[in-house]
Structures are given as structure tokens and as C-alpha cells.
TrEMBL record, chains A, B, C, D, E, F:
InterPro entries linked: AhpD_core, CMD-like
Organism classification: Bacteria, Pseudomonadati, Pseudomonadota, Alphaproteobacteria, Acetobacterales
Domain Carboxymuconolactone decarboxylase-like: 53-121
Superkingdom of this protein's organism: Bacteria
Protein name (database record): Carboxymuconolactone decarboxylase family protein
């Protein structure tokens, strides 16, 4: 189990990140992911910056972004990430029926990915990037 | 490279699947994925049935379903599937900007998935499934 | 593409391994896998020893061993290994129908593996190792 | 941990699947995998249908099919699936010696898969699918 | 194959990144990885920033950092990344003998990782993070 | 959880391996990995031999070898292996700052690996192996 850096013991640069996350999400404490990354402050700061940019406003809506994160975390088999992205997606409107369909897609893609690789299917000319 | 079963050489059960896919998508020929699966007709039929159910009408819209498939195929590193799902998602409205955000999410999730696993982050009580 | 160490340019220790493989399998030349490993002779020798032990006579018959290797190589997405183990399994008796069933199992397992992980299924008491 | 849908609380379509599985396998209750999938009945039904077809009678014998499933689940790192397929394979006749050889093959294939990829070995002409 | 954004057609923000990379590494042109990322400028900029921080001066020396990147890229099966990190590591001093040992470690770890997972080995108390 | 073969119940060939490991590392008992492999003595012996060769004296120093093993085990998501290689690397001199940089590299490589695959970046001519 990860060592978690609590606010009280955190150095100022880590406290600043915690304060910022708490303010942005209006939550009383940051989740364990951030407390674990804080053992290496450069990773904490860089990951916070990257996620803020990637998951922030863009052409994809917040729920779609969260569901994509959940799908990828499931494909990668990360238990913590599946739990946290499921919670975040539910908070943004994912119903149980939507979750059911999402996980069915992740699982079916795993199956068709293996079949396409196994049969060494050559890419149809129409699918090639015009590049 | 896969052996591809062309319509002319296909047995009746395979032709029936090809005919159905061509009619449903209004295309002149099925793509290589189906021609490769046709070397084992039970796999062709079962995969067609499963995909029709999973990718068909539901609570998630068709573009979101296609983007989820693309995200998972990217996470799984299947070159054929990335190409075919990119084409299908574009046909359903995915712009280059949307693709850029989608791939950024897939890549960032790969990074945070590894960090969560590496630091062995324990799941926050609030994230646990009420089960 | 890998640098391949041909017999003529190989040092004596590599030639000895090549000679042994050719004699054991009664083939005129070793395949590319061995010629690629020969750039690091300790890896060539160790891999040859390990494979000889693992794939050699045991309680599982040679065809089953080859099909297991093919299934794992497919799950791991190794194109070279899929090609070489398919050829080897065919040489030991795998028919196209058997290959079709094998690949269907690999693909279905990929799907059910994702579902079991995604739904975080707890292991049934009856399945726990008596340890 | 997954929410498990018990028989008593299950809707009729789910009960029908449970009843059928119990009858087919002559067991008093279905295992946790099915109870977890039941949160999304379409996935429960589709997975049951697919597994019945893929794992049912064919040219490969039941034990070989189960061992292939175990090998793939091990390659994919699915803890639940390793436990359930180990139990199922033992019930079909897998001895501890057979399990030892199977896992040695899975592990060796993981090693040789990485070596073939790392050295970018080109596929021998003799291994190419006649296509 | 990726669409590559050449300097001549690149927007100012992309040219600025290209100029900076060329100056920092004293090379006449950026490699294909950067030209491919340039189709989505935010990803280009963020990736450049993150890599500069992660691969820049720290407590690990540059060659060790490059070899770690090569090892991970091999474990993840990324052909482009294996090629580019092999070249970069050689430029920083990796000999063929060092490469041979590195790849042997990657492959052996793949094997022992599978064995540890397959046998579900419980973590020794002495290995638990003091947390 | 794995069945662990304790010294008292072990057959002579297993005891000999345990004795040898204990003597080589000057430790009172072998760790759980070895006790788990002992259920299949040929795997125990072969893995011990292979690790002794791969992790033994060579052109890479022991700490670098251990850190490479930790990086690969993290990329492969093996919890036991991450714990044991972290402990072993610390024993050989890995500081917390070094661990932080190592894990940042593993995570960034996961991200850039996905981007290179997703954008299907063609290998720069300069990176091609002279073969």
C-alpha cells in the first residue's frame, strides 16, 4: 500500500498543489492518488499540470472525457483508476446502463483486437491515413 | 498477412453474412476484418452478432461508442483496429481536434495508470462500489 | 529489422548451437529467431536451454504445448511468434478448424478477462487454492 | 469488490440464465462472475451465449480448451480468471504436474515474445501464411 | 503511417517547438515523433515539456534514463520507441554488450512477472513499504 | 494466495536450491517467490539458473540491473515484483529520489509509447538498425 503524504506533513510546494485541487473541485481533502504522488513532488506537479490540460475544457465534453479515461483504465487493468474514474464519471452523469454499455465495448474491443492481430488483417486502403 | 475469403469463394453461410453487412452499411464490399474471420465461419457469425448488439442502438450515442472502441484499441496497440475505428469515428463526426483530445486522454491514462499501480495507491473509501 | 548472424560469420559457440538445432530438428538452417538472438551469445544459449526443457517431453503432449505457446503469443501480440508457433503447431497436427477454435478461445478470454477485472469480481471460495 | 446480483433479487431474465447454468453444470449456485455480469443483463446473456459456443463441443477437447483459457488469462494477468480456470481445468483432469508445465510455457512465451519483438525478427518465408 | 507536419507547413507555435528541439540537440531536423505529434499542437507542447523535465538532469544519469526508457518501451512492445531509444542510448554510450544484457533483463522480468502473478505469490513482510 | 513450500516439507532437490540461495545472499530464509515456484521443481531450478546468469556480474552494474527489473515489472503491472525489486534496489543504493525519477520515466514512456503507436509514426531512417 502506498505511503500517503498527509497535508500536515507536506512541504509547502505540495500543500500548494493540495490547496489548489481542493479549491478547484470544492472538496475537503485530495484523494489518495495525489497523496501518493507527493512522495516525489516533481511528479505531483507535472501530473497535475498535464491532467488539468488534458481533462480540462476542449472539444470533447467532460463526461465523454471521463468515460474515455475509464475505458482506457479498464483496458490497462488499473484497479485504482477504474474505481476513481467510475466515481468521477457517475458524478458527471454516467448511469448504470451507460456503464454497462461502456464496459461491454471495452470487452468486445479486447476480443476483436486479438482477432485482428491473430489473423494479421491487412489495413483496407480506405482506412489508411491520407497523411 | 491474413488469408482473405473473397465473396466468390465463400460458402453460403459466409456469403449470407457478407450480404447482410453490405446491406446494413450500404457498402459494395465488406472490409478485410470480416474476410479474415471468414476462415472460421463460427467466429465470423458470433463476432458479427456480438458487435451488432454491443455497437447498436443503446443509451450511448454511436459516435461515443466508436470513440470508446478507438480508445481501447489504442490502449491495446492493435494497428488494424486503430485504423478502422478512426475511419468509422470520422464518418460519424469525429474531427481532427476531437481525435487529438481523445489520443491525449489515452496517453495520459496510460501514464496515470502506471503511477497508480507503481505507488500501489489504496482505493479511497468514497470510490468503493456500494456493492 | 533485426541483424541476423549467419552461420559463416558466427563465432564457434554460436555455430555449435546452430549445429545442434539443425541436427535436432533435421533442418538445413536455423530460423531467424536464433540468428537474431546470436548477437548476444549468452541469451542465445540460455534461451535454447530453457526452451529445450520447457517444450521438451513432459506430461503435456507436443501439440498441446505448441498450441499453448501460440495462444500466449497471440494474447501478447507478438507477430513473429504467432507466425512461427502457427507453423510449428500445424507441423504437429493442428488443423485449420483447431486453429479457428484456439483463436476464438484466446479472443473470448480477452473479453471475459476484461469483464472480470472491470466488475472487480471477488474470487469464489471454491476457487481459492487450498494452499 | 463487485456488486453481486443474488438469485432472490434478480429479474426474470437473469433468473432464467442462472437456472440454465445451474442445470447445465449441475451446481447449486452460479459463480460470482455471472452474478457480477448480471448488473447489465445484455452482457450476461451475450457472454453466456458466446462462452457456450466457444467452450462447447468442437474439435478441441474440453480439457485443452480449459487449459488454453487458463494460459491466456495468465498472460493477461486476470486474477479471478486464473483462479476460476485453474479450478475448472483441475475438475477436467489437469494434474499439478500439468499445471506446472502449462505455467512454465506461459512464462517462457512471455520471455521469447519480448525477445522476438526487441530484436525485431523478420518472419521467415516458410512461416508466412500461404494466404 | 502517420501524417508528418513538416517545418514549412507548420504553424508558428509548432515551428517554435521544432526550433527549440533542434537548438537543444544541435540537429538539423526534428525526428518523426515530433512531426507526428504536431497534428495536435497541445499534445506536442505538453509532451515536449514533460519529456524535458523527466529526461533532463536529475539524480539518475542520462544513459541510465535512456536505458530505462528503452526497457519500458520493449516491455510495452512499441516498435518506434524501441528504435529511437536504442539509437539515443547508443549515442550516450550503450554498447552492444550492454544492450544484450538489458534485453535479457527485460525478457527475464517478463517471465518472472508472469510466474509471480500465476502463482499468486503473497508479498513478503520485509518487502512491504514502511508506508 | 500461492501455496508456499516450506523447507521442512521440501524434497531434497528443492532444499538444495533453498540452501544455495540462502548461502549466496546470506539470508536465513528464501523469499516467497522461491517457495511458490517450488511446487514445480523444474521451474524453480530453471528460473534460479536463468536469474543467476542474467542478474549476475556483467557489463551493467548490479543497481542498474535491479532498476531495469523494477521498471519492467512496473510496466507489466506485477505487484509482487514491484515490491521485491523495490526492496532489492534500495538495498543496492536506490534512494527515494532515484525511485521517483525511475517511476516518472516508466510512466512517461507508457504515455509516449501510446502516442507513437496511435499516430503510427514511421521509424526515422537514422534509427534503423544497420543490420
Amino acid at each position: 500500500m502506498a505511503r500517503l503524504v498527509q497535508y500536515e506533513e507536506a512541504p509547502p510546494e505540495v500543500r500548494a498543489v493540495y490547496d489548489e485541487i481542493k479549491a478547484a473541485r470544492n472538496i475537503p481533502d485530495v484523494n489518495n492518488f495525489w497523496k501518493a504522488l507527493a512522495v516525489h513532488p516533481p511528479t505531483l506537479c507535472r501530473t497535475r499540470d498535464s491532467l488539468r490540460e488534458v481533462m480540462g475544457p476542449g472539444v470533447l465534453d467532460p463526461l465523454t472525457k471521463e468515460m474515455l479515461s475509464l475505458a482506457v483504465s479498464t483496458a490497462n487493468g488499473c484497479a485504482y483508476c477504474m474505481a476513481s474514474h467510475t466515481a468521477a464519471a457517475r458524478a458527471k452523469g454516467m448511469t448504470e446502463e451507460m456503464r454497462g454499455e461502456l464496459l461491454a465495448i471495452v470487452a468486445m474491443a479486447a476480443e476483436t483486437n486479438r482477432l485482428a492481430d491473430a489473423y494479421d488483417v491487412s489495413i483496407d486502403p480506405a482506412y489508411r491515413d491520407p497523411g
